[in-house]
Amino acid sequence: MKVEVIQAWPGRFEARTVELPEGARIADAVAAARLAAGEAIAGYAVFGVSAEAATPLRDGDRVELLRALQVDPKEARRRRAGKN
Asked: What is the pTM of this model?
């Protein structure tokens, strides 16, 4: 089966398509993609839905490597409201 693994930053992204055996999990896809993510991975998603490293994959899935939030969303709203 083929799976796409994507890592994104503001303004750019890196994507790799990997072939995996049936029954592969997210952790297998991340290892096969060999993206230089390191400790920057805060979580995983499959087509935008939160998932765990042990989540089984299906042919055609898109695995997204999630980064940690840089600013708490509530704090960001407060800052924007304060500017107005």
From this structure: 0.79
Spatial contact of 27 and 54, defined as CB atoms under 8 Å apart: yes
Q: Quick one: fold of 2-83?
A: Ubiquitin-like (UB roll) (3.10.20)
Contacts of 64 (CB under 8 A, 6+ apart): 6, 7, 8, 44, 45, 46, 47, 48
pLDDT tens, the chain, 84 aa long: 999 999 988 888 899 999 999 999 999 999 999 987 656 788 999 999 999 999 999 999 999 999 887 778 888 888 888 777
- Nearest alpha-carbon partner for 77 in 43, 65, 69: 69
Cα 29 to the center of its chain, rounded Å: 11
Residue ranges of domains in the chain: 2-83
